[in-house]
Amino acid sequence: KQPSIRSGVYKWTESNVAPCLSHQVRIWVHGKDESQSSFNFPNTIAAASPDALARSGYQPERPMDLKIVQTADFVVLSWAPSPCADLYDVTYQKVTGGEIFSKQMLATEK
């Protein structure tokens, strides 16, 4: 998003940030005369705790690069984990129907 000016103060929101990670911020300002200046925010912005994330209603992105490998005896699922996800709900059912199975997997499980 483009910054919005309010009462002489610029404000913007960065939406592509994982709140479970700590962040350092540097702001660059470019003048019309092609000059530039930077400001390093003096403190690291601390990661939100798992409890704070849960209370906020934050939902991590869906995992990417889902891969399914079928052998004669079993099926293996793998995916690229999403930042801030601690747990995945995996639900499956035979193509022909029947019982639905669900299992929770910790993000650290292989």
User: Cα-atom Rg, whole angstroms?
Assistant: 22 Å
Report on the biggest sheet: 2 strands, antiparallel
| Low-confidence regions | none
Order of helices and strands: EEEEHEEEE
Strand order of the largest sheet: 1-2
Protein model, in words:
The chain has one helix at 50-56; strands spanning 4-6, 9-11, 26-30, 36-40, 64-70, 75-80, 87-93, 100-106. By secondary structure, the protein is mainly β. A two-stranded antiparallel sheet has the order 1-2. Strands 3-4 form a two-stranded antiparallel sheet. Strands 5-6 form a two-stranded antiparallel ribbon. A hairpin with a 4-residue loop joins strand 5 (64-70) and strand 6 (75-80). The longest helix has 7 residues, at 50-56. It starts with a strand and ends with a strand. The mean pLDDT is 86.
Give a summary of the structure in a few sentences.
By secondary structure, the protein is mainly β. The chain has one helix spanning 50-56; strands spanning 4-6, 9-11, 26-30, 36-40, 64-70, 75-80, 87-93, 100-106.
Topology at a glance:
Blueprint: E1 4-6, E2 9-11, E3 26-30, E4 36-40, H1 50-56, E5 64-70, E6 75-80, E7 87-93, E8 100-106
Antiparallel strand pairs: 1-2, 3-4, 5-6, 7-8
